[in-house]
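P.,

For your records, the input lines for the assembly:
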Amino acid sequence: MKKEIIISGFGGQGVLSMGKILAYSGLMEDKEVTWMPSYGPEQRGGTANCTVIVSDERISSPILSRYDIAIVLNQPSLDRFMPLIKPGGILIYDSYGILNKPSRSDIHIYQIDAMDKAAELKNAKVFNMIVLGGLLKVCPVVSTDGLKKALYKTLPERHHEMIPLNMKAVQVGMDLIEEA
Amino acid sequence: MKKEIIISGFGGQGVLSMGKILAYSGLMEDKEVTWMPSYGPEQRGGTANCTVIVSDERISSPILSRYDIAIVLNQPSLDRFMPLIKPGGILIYDSYGILNKPSRSDIHIYQIDAMDKAAELKNAKVFNMIVLGGLLKVCPVVSTDGLKKALYKTLPERHHEMIPLNMKAVQVGMDLIEEA
Amino acid sequence: MNNEVTLLKGNEAIAYAAIRCGADAFFGYPITPQSEIIETLSLLKPWETTGMVVVQAESEVASINMVYGGAGAGKRVFTTSSSPGVALMQEGISFMAGSEIPGVIVNVQRGGPGLGTIQPSQSDYFQATRGGGNGDYNVIVLAPNSVQEMADFMDLAFTLAFRYRNPAMILSDGVIGQMMEKVVLPEQKPRRTEEQIRKECPWATIGRTKDRQPNILTSLELKPEIMEARNIHLQEKYATIREKEVRYETINCEDADYLIVAFGSAARISEKSMEIARGKGEKVGLFRPITLWPFPERQLAEIAKGKKGILVAEINAGQMVEDVRLAINGAVPVEHFGRLGGIVPDPQEIVEALETKMMRK
Amino acid sequence: MNNEVTLLKGNEAIAYAAIRCGADAFFGYPITPQSEIIETLSLLKPWETTGMVVVQAESEVASINMVYGGAGAGKRVFTTSSSPGVALMQEGISFMAGSEIPGVIVNVQRGGPGLGTIQPSQSDYFQATRGGGNGDYNVIVLAPNSVQEMADFMDLAFTLAFRYRNPAMILSDGVIGQMMEKVVLPEQKPRRTEEQIRKECPWATIGRTKDRQPNILTSLELKPEIMEARNIHLQEKYATIREKEVRYETINCEDADYLIVAFGSAARISEKSMEIARGKGEKVGLFRPITLWPFPERQLAEIAKGKKGILVAEINAGQMVEDVRLAINGAVPVEHFGRLGGIVPDPQEIVEALETKMMRK
Amino acid sequence: MTENDIISPENLVYKKPELMNDTPMHYCPGCSHGVVHKLIAEIIEEMGMEEKTVGVSPVGCAVFAYRYLDIDWQEAAHGRAPALATAIKRLWPDRLVFTYQGDGDLACIGTAETIHALNRGEHIAIIFINNAIYGMTGGQMAPTTLIGQKTSTCPYGRDPELHGYPLNITEIASTLRGTCYVSRQSVDTVGSILKAKKAIRKAFEASMKGLGSSLVEIVSTCNSGWKLSPAEANEWMREKMFKEYVKGDLKDTTNLK
Amino acid sequence: MTENDIISPENLVYKKPELMNDTPMHYCPGCSHGVVHKLIAEIIEEMGMEEKTVGVSPVGCAVFAYRYLDIDWQEAAHGRAPALATAIKRLWPDRLVFTYQGDGDLACIGTAETIHALNRGEHIAIIFINNAIYGMTGGQMAPTTLIGQKTSTCPYGRDPELHGYPLNITEIASTLRGTCYVSRQSVDTVGSILKAKKAIRKAFEASMKGLGSSLVEIVSTCNSGWKLSPAEANEWMREKMFKEYVKGDLKDTTNLK
Amino acid sequence: MSTNRGAIVVDKDRCKGCALCVLACSKGVISLAVRKVNVHGYPYVEPMNPDNCIGCASCAIVCPDGCIEVYRKIIDKEDEQ
Amino acid sequence: MSTNRGAIVVDKDRCKGCALCVLACSKGVISLAVRKVNVHGYPYVEPMNPDNCIGCASCAIVCPDGCIEVYRKIIDKEDEQ
Ligand SMILES: Cc1ncc(C[n+]2csc(CCOP(=O)(O)OP(=O)(O)O)c2C)c(N)n1
Ligand SMILES: Cc1ncc(C[n+]2csc(CCOP(=O)(O)OP(=O)(O)O)c2C)c(N)n1
Ligand code: SF4
Ligand code: SF4
Ligand code: SF4
Ligand code: SF4
Ligand code: SF4
Ligand code: SF4
Ligand SMILES: [Mg+2]
Ligand SMILES: [Mg+2]
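Structure tokens returned:
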């Protein structure tokens, strides 16, 4: 199995760390992974993205022009990456930042209103995990177990108490996502 | 006609300017000339030399390994350049700085005691011109007229009054030089 | 600290691997896309563990001259920068070559010329392999194509640098520097003791003991005869390195009709292009020089025999293609494909280039 | 001041010719064997006659960036240095190429690497022609082989630099810089007026008048698409220069069995070698690239057809020989002869190299 | 009296200067760079030098200054702006030539160019944005970073034993015989902004009068690099930076008011 | 009592230090460099640091210092000696590391390296030979060349309008927080030589005690470059140079005697 | 008796919501727009209490992005009431 | 009563004839050798009035090339006479 994923949104939305957690989860399950960010002076607004590949075999190019899955969190990201999803692929979007709804018939399109949900939960920090939960629901690139391991591995010890909350958010995301 | 000449001695002895005057004289007579110095931190002692080529035709290489004429003003210069004189060529030396007299039978060897002469004349500055006079005597690479023109051209106007004295020194050199 | 499997950026891997391979010092100046190297080092503060020194220098000019000083004192010392910063180091690198100083330079390339772009590029191939500084000299150039190689080449670069008393460079780029991949970090090696350094580096300037002549590191010599001898010594050393240290990788070259020659990130991308082409039934192989200098010229010439064509895929306007042409010497058609300005080609483009430039024309 | 026939050092000729061709400024830092250039300028004090500015900069890094500033403001500005000094300029030259700044750099080469020697050398050929700085760029490189050409190429370098908005370099060496020869100095040209500059250099940053957009000189662009377009523009410009500005000289090539290819002082020496060889009955010709970049590759390939062999004579360890090999592409055997470390070969050595490497083997 | 009655051209009392175009600036919200840009534009307009000014932008966050002020610009290599400016001014003496540089650019890699241009007394003005950090590259230590201040390359705080001391380059500038005006200002309040404007204006005028070289340091915030909100950043600057970098004129031999 | 009675080992009161070998020095007759070389050799011997010293020679007339003192040496690129020394000392903290640099090397092309090494307080000593000219390359203007002084690149005398002002880098060094000892001396008389020796010794000791960085300027002659006899050069130095470069300690926080 | 009445116009697409103007206004005229972002994704400010504005221009002077235009009219107190 | 008697040895091949020692010697001991040059081509100095030497070492201290060795013996004035 090999999944080629792009995650894209505003610089501040945490798209890069979302990708990192995903990649780390793959690593925890002994898969091959690559994570490739857009980089530069992103702190100043603008759109950031990262490509994550999770595969059972050696990964050749970390640079892609077509994706199995795109997670888009604002309009420019949608405009840019929707056309690059392979037929039969998956598009996940958060409607919060989207003005014109996606419109391809040869792919699976899912909506996840994670921004609103995170605001509702009064915890902006779990936004990431909600989105990831949604992804794992519609395409179990990695297991939730791998994800949990990744959190234990990457978070500094003093934040480990937050992990149950995060895993709960994953569950929320799984419940929240819906075919658009 | 083409003459390939090396002039070599202590840094302070004015070998470079001797060569320059010679080259300039050639220029005054519409010949092709090149002057190529050794260079570097010469003010601190050590041996300096320059190659002068005077020719009726275009000069290809300014760098030579064999010379028609060598003027050597100290022992290291003699040791280095005597072997490089073409058979039938000319060696001119000032005995002042020479410990072991030159010893090739296939070239013409001339001695000119210009150092002593200049000291005798109480004018160290004409040393150059005495040596050049000697050279022109044994091999008229340029005419004394060309030499005079060169002096007029190269010396700043305020020094022009010195030119007759210099030309006299040339004559002295012509008289002084003798087959060794 | 044993071998550790983790997920790191190429830049971070450089920092971790440097500490673990017993590096003694880092001197460098921040520049995108490689500032994570000095940042990671600053965070790990190896001066409290292995004793490694980390200094943010006042410029790349200072950095490379600190490397000169430190490596000249027998230590494993390196600097890292990106393209314009490395341009500033050219005098220093030339000095290191002349004085035979075994320092290591990492260039995480970005697009040029000038300030250019912070996006990835491979357009410093000439600067690295032809010696951007003055004089006849060569730098050993290693081109990693994965985060793992970023880590592995750190120790290798030091080893080669000290083996030949010559600067060595890791020529990476923004793709390899910024991407994360699985990496197995080497075990922590101890830094060498003074005794070991004295033994391994009898030339090092660490205080002249009575039993030897002063050690003098200089690239200067005003006597042409001696200077020529020193230059000939360098050239002979380079010939030895050419003989012994060529590294490259081949994938599917045996039965191939066409070869892609690519290094670093372009090789990763080309590997996928090769897969795509093979999927279409075209027999394409990949030749990846790992040492860019010494370039695997004999090896490539050998493998290229009888092929129908060679496509050199680079993220530049055509640089390594010269070395390929020099190696092939007219025996096989050689074409170039490249993208510029920070654009990283995708695998499909290279397939198309193969088709239009080599197969169909 | 009319055309004047005089005897000058190559370095002095540069200074005289610069003033006479209407140069607006010199910025430079002393270094042997070319300090006579700034010294002659200081003595001639052109700021009192033509108004030319002469500034001794604090370093070569500053010099080249002053050239950037001055030439970017539409003026004829140049700097001069020797090998290690030019190594320090590589970042600046790369910036100039990226921003399309028409400055002129004179390199009176000495031996390297590093501090090397002050004696003549041609070992900065790669640095000059491959772009020692970062990125894909080219500098127009003129190689004078006489004092006359030192003088003549000053104006030519400015002309080409401004014609193409590209840095141009005069790649000379200690032989040509230090030797004196007859030289015909050009007539004094007036420096261009503001009006002329506005016309010739609409891009120059001299104050934005209402009738145009701001002029911005920068090598930076973060958007890859735009940056690639700019790079492609540069590559197209380079292609035009390759097409139109190749310069070379041939002597006795028509009937020759063997060619010597040499530039600059090595070409002068080789000319004599050719004479000697012809004296011995060997049909030898001389091909002298005058522009090292663009290298006369098509022209050489054409002339080389059917020859028995080509000897590339350089005062280095083998640099231009790569361009010759690339041009010839295996059609004729190519060998290299070189001396290193500040030793200038004499004509006889090259004849011997011809005999042993080409004729007898 | 409605808003609309007031909002009418004849009642306009402030808007951004003409010379500042409408291109959105890439600076982070609240970054000091923007304020200084405005001041420079205002001064050039007030001096009537719109057609006779050449700016030199640095490598640093202000690298793109050229996008925002509609004058001619050259973008310098990192640290070399004073070298460019030297040449431009020597060749076009009647132009107003200024550089705009950050602390990394001016006080670190460009130390030699800064000191020598100032010492030669080039008739240029140097505007120096000291935010005690490398903003552009993501917040690394600058020569002006304070002792104890945390940056990405001194994440445990600047330690003089490891990293040396804050460099007061403006003080050095004031000791150089080539400088005629050296001043340190800030742009955190209306009052300080007006003072900073006066200082920059004096520097520009001194350069046009050929009195020597000038340096105006603006003690600035980099809220992104400092990881503070814009308001907190101003507070922190006033509390910490002003102690190390004391505001006021350090040298004035211009006799200009 | 014949000379031979006196010339006998037990009566020896002065000879050149052991560490200075017999290689003839390439310096011009009367050049100050030689005296300073002797002092450094003497001090290293007196400190017993023969086996623990690394010198860094510059590009300048002293480039060949490594030929004359039998210690380990590195030859730096022009101006970069402080960078080399920084690395050597950081990596071998128990070694005595010093640089030896001319005014072109230290105060011109190497300005940034000098200031930043000093400001970081590297535990090194910088010996600075200020002869107001570029000796090595044949007598060009240096940053320290005096107003009116003639050199090959200011043959009509240094003119501040064209060439800027003499740069007093030692004064700058004394303002940097990283320096613990900054002194200016000369070596033209027995008395001044002994003082210079004390200063260099203090700088070396301060570096070994880790007190910070030190700079000792030796106002020197370059009779070749100045086109004077050695004796005249000393006179000229005393008359002209000492006015611009006033001798004495500029800073001393070492508490060493 | 006369007084100053002011008004400001914020270029909301240029505003980055840094809130420095909010702090600079002693009259409490300006506030961040609630939960709104502009085309560039930035929050932005609006004159929430426009009537308090005296047209002193403090807000505009401190605005790093030059987003605020300030207008001022001197009016008779009586007129107003 | 005792006094200092000194003597110097000049390494003439190392000496460059700069004459700084000549100036430094208050006793007039040293002079340039007349019309002589050493192996390197330099004029050099010699102790022309050796008896005046008091072994103060001034000459040696100022010698840039370290050419002078100084010896000193304390002797009884009486002894001498
Ligand atoms: C030669 C070179 N070295 C390093 C860099 C990377 N770089 C870009 S900006 C910068 C520092 C910017 O800091 P500063 O000058 O303080 O400006 P700020 O961004 O804080 O305004 C650096 C190191 C570069 N572009 N070129
Ligand atoms: C990069 C570089 N630029 C220039 C030179 C040429 N150069 C050699 S020594 C020197 C200046 C020497 O002057 P100074 O440092 O004052 O030493 P001095 O000879 O006076 O003792 C210069 C410019 C060089 N070798 N390298
Ligand atoms: S990083 Fe700092 S200096 Fe740069 S724009 Fe942001 S706040 Fe301003
Ligand atoms: S040139 Fe000057 S500094 Fe150099 S050795 Fe001679 S006198 Fe000394
Ligand atoms: S002009 Fe004055 S009162 Fe009005 S909003 Fe701005 S700061 Fe407040
Ligand atoms: S100061 Fe300017 S950018 Fe900041 S919030 Fe106010 S209007 Fe917006
Ligand atoms: S030791 Fe004293 S008295 Fe003797 S020669 Fe030397 S300076 Fe003169
Ligand atoms: S001081 Fe030394 S070098 Fe000079 S003349 Fe005296 S002995 Fe000779
Ligand atoms: Mg900053
Ligand atoms: Mg000097």
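Two observations worth noting. Chain G has a mean pLDDT of 91. The longest helix of chain G spans residues 20-24.

Regards
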